[in-house]
TrEMBL record:
A GO CC term assigned to this protein in UniProt: mitochondrion
UniProt cross-references to InterPro entries, sorted A to Z: 2Fe-2S_ferredoxin-like_sf (IPR036010), Adrenodoxin-like (IPR001055), Beta-grasp_dom_sf (IPR012675)
Protein name according to UniProt: 2Fe-2S ferredoxin-type domain-containing protein
High-level lineage: Eukaryota, Viridiplantae, Streptophyta, Embryophyta, Tracheophyta
Gene Ontology biological process terms, A to Z: P450-containing electron transport chain
Coiled coil: none
Domain of life the protein comes from: Eukaryota
PANTHER family associated with the record: 2FE-2S FERREDOXIN-LIKE SUPERFAMILY PROTEIN (PTHR23426:SF35), FERREDOXIN/ADRENODOXIN (PTHR23426)
Length: 152
């Protein structure tokens, strides 16, 4: 009986040590992976100033532009295409267009619906629909002036 209790205690301690090592391993792996996920972009603001923007792979372009202060977070509360009113519309430099996946039907619909001319500009993309990848490292985007109805 005493031997069984001792064996049980050893198994618990061993399990706790293994769990602690696993947590430490995952934590340090996560720390090193964050720096591996950084994507550096250039954004031209409405005043024509080029600014460096940092984002993470898997994050939307909208999130990166919002975090850097180029798009007001209140102007685009949701990253859901069904709720999008195109306040996150950006222009992508020509040389980067081919590296992006094509626009979805929904993205094209939102862009056309909110365009005054109802014509689709080939450089226009919704920041909420562009997901950052390492292939987009160095991409140049232009952030247009807020639309008159977006200005308080």
């Amino acid at each position: 009986m005493a031997m069984t209790m001792m064996r049980s205690s050893l198994q618990r301690v061993s399990s706790q040590i293994h769990h602690s090592k696993s947590v430490i391993s995952r934590t340090s792996a996560f720390s090193s992976k964050v720096s591996d996920r950084i994507v550096k972009l250039s954004a031209v603001d409405p005043d024509g100033q080029k600014r460096e923007v940092l984002g993470l792979t898997g994050q939307t372009l909208l999130k990166a532009l919002t975090n850097s202060g180029l798009i007001d977070p209140a102007s685009h509360r949701l990253e859901d295409i069904d709720a999008c009113s195109s306040e996150c519309e950006v222009s992508i430099a020509q040389e980067w267009l081919e590296r992006l996946p094509p626009r979805s039907y929904d993205e094209e619909y939102v862009l056309k619906r909110n365009s005054r001319a109802r014509v689709l500009n080939k450089h226009s993309r919704l920041g909420c629909q562009v997901v950052l990848t390492h292939d987009l490292q160095g991409m140049v985007v232009a952030v247009p002036e807020p639309k008159p109805w977006d200005i308080p």
